[in-house]
Amino acid sequence: MSDLEADLRRFRLAAPADGLRATVLARATRAAQIERRWRAVRRAAWLALFLSLILNLSLGGSRTARPDPRAVPDFPEVAEMALDEIARWRLRLALTPQRTPRNREDLP
Amino acid sequence: MKLDGDGLAQLYDAWASRLLGYMIALTRDRHRAEDALQNLFVKLAESQPAIENPAAYLFRAARNEALRVTRRAPEAPLAGLEVVAPADESADRGEAERVAAALDRLPREQAEVVMLHALQGLAFREVAEVLGIPLDTAASRWRYALEKLRDVLGRVEA
Fold it and tell me: Does a structural domain hold residue B64?
């Protein structure tokens, strides 16, 4: 070590910081608390997002298997509905009394 | 080192005075340096870093924070700010002023090496880490700074 270096080492670069201690530590502690809470909120949000993603993925398969009410019914179903409707009309016609003459012979 | 409430207080007690001195030397403004010191401890409390080498880490963080708050700030002389202080009985206030005035006459990058190595006691490896420069560059800046300081302080190597 040179003399100049030894001379320089007799000095230090410092400034009294005791007056700031309480303020700095209070601010830092408060900031740490806010950061901890914010981290907890972010963790919860990520967890919720993750769970909803998992739920969406797991429900996705059964949802496609479920019948869509807006979907057009297939042909056998339409045919069955039509036959039911015809049968209902036939029954109604059969039960309805014939008040009007059907042909000339029936006229008075 | 765990930076909970007590850890932070211990860190402050051990380093704040030296960090503030360095920040005042960089910002040339006590109020800005105090703001920077507050910001530094708030960031430490928020990020809770795992610090292996406190000297290198803290001085680097202090430097970053000081440079951040001091952008476009006017350059004031280091002498008169009383941040260069006698470390022992053998030095007095007048000599400290002379050293501060001599540092003012060095290029900034050399003055920083002198501040960190001689006045803060950091090893060259740590100085290089703080300044983000190679070890050889730190050493050569130190040599150039000593040559200039010898001229400025009127000293002759024995």
Answer: yes
